[in-house]
Amino acid sequence: MKKLKKLGIFCLVVSVSVAMLVGCSKSKDKLKETSKLDDDYVMQISYGTGLCAAPLQMAVEKGFLKEEGIKYELLKSDKSSVDLMMSGKSDTFLEMLPAMIQQIDNGLDARIAMGVHTGCLKLLTKPDSPINGVKDLKGKKIGVPGLASSQTIIAQRALLAAGIGVSPENMEVEFVVYNQPELPLALKNGQVDAIGMSDPSASLVVNSGDAKIILDNGVDKEYKNEYCCVLVLRPDFVKEHPEIAKKYVRAMKKAGEYVQNNPEEVAQIQIDKKLVALGDPTFNSGILKTYNFVPSVVKGKESLIKNFNDLQKIKFISQDLDVDKVVDKIYVEFDGIDD
């Protein structure tokens, strides 16, 4: 009987050991499979022109993506980056944070990994206007490129902070939609009292003498430390290729820091490579210097939460939305990448 017991115990130990070896073998095979998938994977990156896209542009031009061993293709399309991501054609893009909020509230599944830079949104009025600040906009008409645009959202948040009603039940301003190129003319002709624009167009209008600034989120004490542009990733890309996603975020962090430390060179490259259609290297580098291009994981998350909370206050998004739960789902933080 004792011999049988010992034999039984021996068999059990052997069985467990074999199972562990098989499990380890399968685990190693899975790692090899994932590694092979990563080796073959070619990232699809939505790539566009514009001053604010400097970090992504420099990630390409200065070789930060290749330095991380990332294989990639640049997507240049008339379709929106969000549409490309939803159709599985794009793995990543840069987007203004305010514009993402309503889309996420409406069910968009996306991952945000980092704040990319501050600044780039402005509210303008005529040079001789009695309007000298956001507090003077009560009862006025504000021209914007879209009712859900980042320009509109920063205006609404600033109006809320100034005690001016912007909720559906208490709207104390009127937003009027124009194409962005038409906004300066609408202001000049008196069709609106103020306009919301992004750079470099906004700064060019001011530099021409046709407008003055009443809000600049790059220098305003309420918003200057808030990240207005974020790094967006396709959820399935993060799930299926987490190591590539991590390398990409790290490359973008290096690229942003490069822009911060070399604004003159970056502005020159943007003009030479036709990555920016407006301005000149000297003027554009001056704008770049007003932003903070040092990417931040922590402040990117803080900016996301702040935008959600403000937009709930003005009833721009659902009042039932659990902000903490949503942020926990969409904000992805990679080990080893911090501020």
UniProtKB/TrEMBL annotation:
Domain of life: Bacteria
Keyword Acetylation: no
Signal peptide: 1-21
Database matches in InterPro entries: SsuA/THI5
UniProt keyword Signal present: yes
SsuA/THI5-like domain boundaries: 54-265
Cross-referenced Gene3D superfamilies: Periplasmic binding protein-like II
The protein's name: ABC-type nitrate/sulfonate/bicarbonate transport system, periplasmic component
